[in-house]
Amino acid sequence: MAISSTSIILLISLFTLTLLLPTNHAIFSRPISKAEIGIKDDDDKLTQLTFYYHDTLSGSNPSAIQIAKANSTDKSPTSFGALAMMDDPLTEGPEPTSKLVGRAQGIYGLADQQESALVMIMNFFFVEGEFNGSTLSVLGRDAMMDKVREMPVVGGTGAFRFAKGYVQAKTHKFDQKTGDAVVLYNVFVNHANSNVTIQSSGGSPGSTASNGAPSPSQASLSKMLSTLIMIPLLYLCVF
Asked: CA-CA distances (angstroms) from residue 51 to 12, 87, 169, 216?
């Protein structure tokens, strides 16, 4: 049976429509605007933060615990190879009873065979004020015997998206017997000028969960429409 000109036009129209339907594929790369991820169009902000870091190894509830060490660590004059996990409180003042503003969570290890120096890998997770829920990531070398140590800020989340900067650490108090330390941190960070609401999933394009992929409901609708359109297409091709 010959296909009429009307059927041919309908076939072409339906085929074109299927090309325009969304598909269940995440977008690998696309340009976006600052507004789409909650960033204002003006200049970045420069912020200074000052707080005290409490690294407690002693007592029944230490905030830092050793999780590994090398066989040769105990013989090393610098305890080279020891590794610790921390969840250290950050406070406004040097006293442990001072107001909590965040926590330093991460790991540090003795990484120098010549002097007491740590490699620090940590997130400052803030729980107070305008930066509540935001984090700053620090990765660097902490030579503990130096009066002031400087380490880079390598990134951040929430209000600190696109963060870059540095921290200066200065020992306020150190107990040689227990290893407990209180360290003053001055943080200087350049970050996006944004007002963001941190969300666990879904939400607007400005939330941390946005990734450009279609939602499950969009994918299901696309699949259903594609199926409905393919049925008449197959009929026209056969008859």
From this structure: 67, 15, 10, 44
Residue 192: per-residue pLDDT: 84
Inter-residue contact 154 to 129 (CB < 8 Å): no
Name the percent of the chain lying above pLDDT 90: 61
- The model's pTM is 0.71
Under the banding of pLDDT at 50, 70 and 90, the label for residue 205 is very low
Contact present, 90 and 51 (Cβ < 8 Å): yes
The dihedral of CA 129, 97, 169, 81: what is its sign?
negative
Radius of gyration of the chain (CA): 28
Q: How far apart are CA 160 and CA 77, in angstroms?
A: 39
Selected from 2.60.40.1180, 2.40.480.10, 1.10.10.10, 1.20.85.10, the CATH number assigned to the domain covering 45-191 reads 2.40.480.10
- At residue 36, the pLDDT reads 78
Q: Where are the beta strands (DSSP E) in 14-96?
A: 45-55, 64-68, 83-91
Give the closest residue to 81 by CA, choosing from 46, 118, 56, 52: 118
Residue 137, CB-side half-sphere exposure with 13 Å CA sphere: 10
Our separate counts of H helices and E strands in the chain read 2, 9
Instruction: Tell me which of 184 and 239 has the higher pLDDT.
Output: 184
- How many C-beta atoms lie closer than 10 Å to residue 126's C-beta? 23
